C-alpha cells in the first residue's frame, strides 16, 4: 500500500471528505505553494464544506413546508413589506435577543414565504430552528397532555432558538388548546424567539382562542419585544393563476 493510499484512508477515517476530494489538485497543481499554504487552503475548504453540510441538515430537520429564501421574495409585488426591515432581520440579531416577528395578512400574501426565508437564514447561521403549523402544534400538545407527557413535549419546543408557528387563526382553538398554547408561549417569553404568521388582525384573536383572557395574555407576550409586519398586498396565488390563465389564453 502506497503512502498516498494510506493518506486517503486516514482522511476517510477522519471524515475529512473535502480535503480528500481537493488534495489531488494541490499535489498536481502549483508547486510554488508552501506546505503551510496548501494545508491552510485545504482546511478552509473542509470548514466551508462542513458549514454548508450543517446548514443543509438544519434546514432538513426544521421541517419547512418548502425551501424559499428572502432573496426569492418579490418585494415589488408586495410593497407593503418593508424590505429594509426584513434585510435587518436577516442578521439574526432578533434571535440572539429573543425577540419575536409577526406577519399579519390575508391568505397568499407571502407570510409563510417570509417566515420560511428567515428560518432558512437562521439555519445557515447555525441557530436551531423548527417550523410547525399552528393546528398541528395544538394537536400535538393536546395529545401529549392526554398521555401525561406534556412536560417533555414543551421542553422539546423550548430547545429551539427559533420556533416558527404558521397559520394562527385558520381554525378555532378550544379551551385546552388555548391553555397549552399559552404555556408554550409563556415559557419561551424573553428566552427564545418566535415567528408567527396569522390571517386575522391581533384585535380579533379572542375569536380564535376560546378564552379572550388567554388570547390577550398570549398576545401580550408575543407582541412585547417584537417586529410586526402587516401585509396588505394581493395574493401571490392569484397572481400566479392570472399569469397562467393569460398564457393559456394566448396559446389558444
Automatic annotation (TrEMBL):
<comment type="similarity">
    <text>Belongs to the IS21/IS1162 putative ATP-binding protein family.</text>
</comment>
<dbReference type="InterPro" id="IPR047661">
    <property type="entry name" value="IstB"/>
</dbReference>
<dbReference type="InterPro" id="IPR028350">
    <property type="entry name" value="DNAC/IstB-like"/>
</dbReference>
<dbReference type="InterPro" id="IPR003593">
    <property type="entry name" value="AAA+_ATPase"/>
</dbReference>
<dbReference type="InterPro" id="IPR027417">
    <property type="entry name" value="P-loop_NTPase"/>
</dbReference>
<dbReference type="GO" id="GO:0006260">
    <property type="term" value="P:DNA replication"/>
</dbReference>
<keyword id="KW-0547">Nucleotide-binding</keyword>
<feature type="domain" description="AAA+ ATPase">
    <location>
        <begin position="97"/>
        <end position="229"/>
    </location>
</feature>
<dbReference type="InterPro" id="IPR002611">
    <property type="entry name" value="IstB_ATP-bd"/>
</dbReference>
<keyword id="KW-0067">ATP-binding</keyword>
<dbReference type="Pfam" id="PF01695">
    <property type="entry name" value="IstB_IS21"/>
</dbReference>
<protein>
    <submittedName>
        <fullName>ATP-binding protein</fullName>
    </submittedName>
</protein>
<dbReference type="GO" id="GO:0005524">
    <property type="term" value="F:ATP binding"/>
</dbReference>
Amino acid at each position: 500500500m502506497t503512502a498516498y493510499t494510506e493518506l486517503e484512508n486516514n482522511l476517510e477515517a477522519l471524515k475529512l471528505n473535502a480535503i480528500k476530494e481537493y488534495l489531488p489538485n494541490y499535489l498536481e497543481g502549483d508547486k510554488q505553494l508552501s506546505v503551510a499554504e496548501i494545508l491552510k487552503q485545504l482546511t478552509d475548504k473542509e470548514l466551508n464544506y462542513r458549514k454548508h453540510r450543517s446548514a443543509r441538515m438544519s434546514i432538513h430537520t426544521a421541517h419547512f413546508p418548502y425551501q424559499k429564501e428572502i432573496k426569492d421574495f418579490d418585494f415589488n409585488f408586495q410593497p407593503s413589506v418593508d424590505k429594509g426591515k426584513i434585510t435587518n432581520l436577516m442578521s439574526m440579531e432578533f434571535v440572539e435577543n429573543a425577540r419575536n416577528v409577526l406577519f399579519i395578512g390575508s391568505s397568499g400574501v407571502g407570510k409563510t414565504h417570509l417566515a420560511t426565508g428567515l428560518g432558512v437564514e437562521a439555519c445557515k447561521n447555525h441557530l436551531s430552528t423548527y417550523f410547525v403549523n399552528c393546528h398541528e402544534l395544538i394537536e400535538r400538545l393536546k395529545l401529549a397532555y392526554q398521555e401525561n407527557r406534556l412536560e417533555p413535549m414543551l421542553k422539546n419546543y423550548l430547545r429551539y432558538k427559533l420556533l416558527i408557528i404558521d397559520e394562527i387563526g385558520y381554525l378555532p382553538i378550544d379551551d385546552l388548546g388555548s391553555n397549552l398554547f399559552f404555556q408554550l408561549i409563556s415559557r419561551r417569553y424573553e428566552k427564545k424567539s418566535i415567528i408567527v404568521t396569522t390571517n386575522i388582525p391581533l384585535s380579533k384573536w379572542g375569536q380564535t382562542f376560546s378564552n379572550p383572557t388567554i388570547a390577550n395574555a398570549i398576545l401580550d407576550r408575543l407582541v412585547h419585544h417584537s417586529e410586526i409586519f402587516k401585509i396588505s398586498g394581493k395574493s401571490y396565488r392569484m397572481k400566479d393563476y392570472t399569469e397562467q390563465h393569460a398564457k393559456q389564453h394566448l396559446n389558444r
